[in-house]
Specification:
- The protein is an alpha+beta fold.
- The chain has helices at 7-15, 17-28, 33-40, 44-56, 103-112; strands at residues 60-67, 72-79, 81-89, 92-99.
- Strands 1-2 form a two-stranded antiparallel ribbon. Strands 3-4 form a two-stranded antiparallel sheet.
- A hairpin with a 4-residue loop joins strand 1 and strand 2 (72-79).
């Protein structure tokens, strides 16, 4: 993510019920696209498009999780979103996005700061 998304982009995303379901479900636990497709009652291509939109806006992270039962790995998605705030200031709207920081990212910052 190179820069913060604007109010219009976030508003359009949040208008979509599939996006809202993805955010609420992945806030509880990381999930695969297949599982999200079931929860959203949407096709996998639709879910994958919404996942990519959310990743591009920095509202979702993709993780690789080992799957020892099948002998490979799987991709799961989790939201890193904590809060979105829209304020009316000086005749315009301003957007603030608060994200949760991943434990691994915090550890990396700690080590880099030493």
């Amino acid at each position: 993510m190179s820069e913060e998304p604007d109010v219009e982009t976030i508003g359009a995303l949040l208008e979509d019920p599939t996006v809202r379901t993805i955010l609420t479900q992945t806030s509880q636990e990381p999930m695969t696209a297949t599982t999200l497709s079931d929860h959203c009652d949407a096709s996998k291509p639709t879910v994958y498009r919404r996942l990519e939109d959310l990743r591009e806006c920095g509202l979702l992270v993709e993780r690789t999780k080992p799957d020892p039962d099948r002998g490979h790995h799987r991709t799961v998605y989790a939201t890193n979103l904590e809060r979105i705030t829209v304020d009316l200031d000086d005749g315009g709207l301003t957007l603030q996005i608060d994200r949760r920081e991943d434990m691994a990212d915090r550890f990396t910052k700690l080590i880099e700061g030493i």
